[in-house]
Design goal:
disordered N terminus, glycosyltransferase, signal-anchor, alpha/beta, transmembrane helix, 486 residues, seven-stranded parallel β-sheet, ALG1-like, EC 2.4.1.142, 17 helices
Length: 486
């Protein structure tokens, strides 16, 4: 029966390759050789042993590997337990060194294809999906036969269907790691009733049921998958790896010195550079040990993908209100607000930032290397999260990282945020810019004192005993693999 199913699938793929190649050629998009290569790969696959390699796993993300921390953590955890990992995704941002330097992890790069550059929008989208499908088929058929393909969703189009077909062909097991729903992200741009959004929702629901195992990021998503889509999932909360921790003063100073050469808010203010003292806005080294400067500003941290599910105008308005508090005579520290990340709306918000006229608040938007980001979080005084889940069912990993560094957080409210942020225990939850501004004022009113609410939140995080990624992964994912006897 399995051989019959596999034969049927192969025939379908052969036909799909030939038809796709024909139409792509008609549009002048691609040489006919791509269709030939696609068909050749499937024929070649028929001649290969389809048996699974017990210690081989493919980790797949149709996105930038370097900006997919959870999937990088999966790959590292798998390698620690003896699996060889083929890590398939886009090579844009540099991945973490623990991935690049791992002999058991091999990165298999694929390109972010764009389809037609002209013509109706729907046609451009369809051609992009077809091209991405062909490329993904080729990549997944080229690697050694894995026991599992572990795929991130979203993005799931066309990855879920393609991965399911490849798993059926090669006898691999299919695991989906649900970070969110792709259709809800699309709805932010197109609206819930748009035909593309409706098709995307049907697609995720239909093909998602063909996975062998499912992971998800919250209990709320687990319940939603079961209730509305009849998909049984296991909750694997995002947890910080050991690299996220409070940074020692020496490490902070070293990072601040490097950043001060690139970003003005990190430069020291007013002191002579010829007195032999290394200074930044926050730290100084006078011969030996590093100390914090007495009149240092508070360091406010946020990170973002600069997408539509994060409205940074809320933070900018709150910072304007904070400026007003200081101008009005409130005893508050100056602020350095650092917003890290890359994404489509970054230039839009940078133009808004450039128009602000602030004396007591400085804002910079650097891109940090993977090794520097945990250090900066571990050096900050307060974190801010503007992530507002498109589905209301996922949690912001940036807050997880902040908590790993014992960094208290002000986070914008949404449906299941309470699974992570405990109001008045490890941070505060706000609903608008005015409430955020009042929280910044209240938390920083006694800065840099080691007493007060901000210090209490940090103390609670230090003694929370939260598990790290390795421990959580070993308790949650490893039993799933062991149950399959692979």
């Amino acid at each position: 029966m399995a051989d019959t199913n596999r034969s049927v699938i192969v025939v379908i793929l052969l036909i799909a390759g030939i038809v796709s190649g024909y139409y792509l050629t008609q549009f002048g998009l691609i040489y006919p050789a791509i269709a030939v290569v696609f068909v050749y790969q499937i024929v070649r696959l028929l001649r290969r042993n389809s048996g699974r390699t017990g210690q081989s796993v493919c980790v797949l993300v149709l996105g930038d590997i370097g900006r997919s921390p959870r999937m990088q953590y999966h790959a590292i955890s798998l390698s620690k337990h003896g699996y060889t990992v083929s890590f398939v995704g886009f090579l844009g941002t540099k991945p973490h060194q623990d991935v690049l330097g791992n002999e058991r992890i091999k990165i298999v790069p694929i390109s972010e294809l764009r389809g037609l550059s002209a013509g109706p929008k729907i046609l451009r989208y369809v051609t992009k999906v077809i091209l991405q499908s062909l490329q993904l088929f080729y990549a997944l058929l080229k690697i050694d036969t894995p026991s599992y393909i572990l795929m991130q969703n979203p993005p799931g189009l066309p990855g879920i269907a393609v991965t399911w077909l490849v798993c059926s062909l090669r006898g691999s097991k299919f695991i989906i790691d649900w970070h969110n729903y792709g259709y809800t992200i699309m709805a932010l741009s197109h609206g819930e009733k748009h035909p593309i959004v409706r098709v995307a929702k049907w697609y995720e629901k239909f093909f998602g049921r063909y996975s062998h195992h499912n992971l998800c990021v919250t209990n709320a998503m687990k319940d939603d998958l079961q209730t509305n889509w009849s998909i049984k999932a296991t909750t694997l909360y995002d947890k910080p790896p050991l690299m996220f921790k409070e940074a020692p003063l020496e490490t902070r100073h070293s990072l601040f010195m490097r950043l001060s050469a690139l970003h003005a808010p990190f430069k020291s203010r007013g002191e002579s550079p010829t007195d032999g003292v290394e200074r930044t806005a926050f730290t100084q080294r006078d011969g030996g040990a590093v100390t914090l400067t007495e009149e240092r500003p508070a360091l406010l941290m946020s990170s973002t993908s600069w997408t539509e599910d994060e409205d940074f105008s809320i933070l900018l308005k709150a910072l304007e209100d904070y400026e007003g508090f200081v101008e009005g005579g409130a005893t508050l520290p100056s602020l350095v607000c650092v917003i890290t990340g890359k994404g489509p709306q970054k230039e839009h918000y940078r133009s808004l930032i450039d128009r602000l006229q602030l004396k007591h608040v400085q804002i910079c938007t650097p891109w940090l290397e993977a090794e520097d980001y945990p250090v900066l979080l571990g050096s900050a005084d307060l974190g801010v999260c503007l992530h507002k889940s498109s589905s209301g069912l996922d949690l912001p990993m940036k807050v997880v990282d902040m908590f790993g560094c014992c960094l208290p957080v002000c986070a914008i409210h949404f449906q299941c945020l309470h699974e992570l942020v405990k109001h008045e225990e490890n941070g505060l939850i706000f609903k608008d810019s005015q409430e955020l501004a009042e929280q910044l004022k209240a938390l920083l009113s006694d800065f840099p004192s080691t007493e007060g609410r901000l210090a209490l939140f940090r103390k609670n995080l230090r003694f929370s005993g939260q598990p790290r990624w390795d421990e959580s992964w070993d308790q949650t994912v490893l039993p799933l693999l062991a149950a399959d006897g692979i």
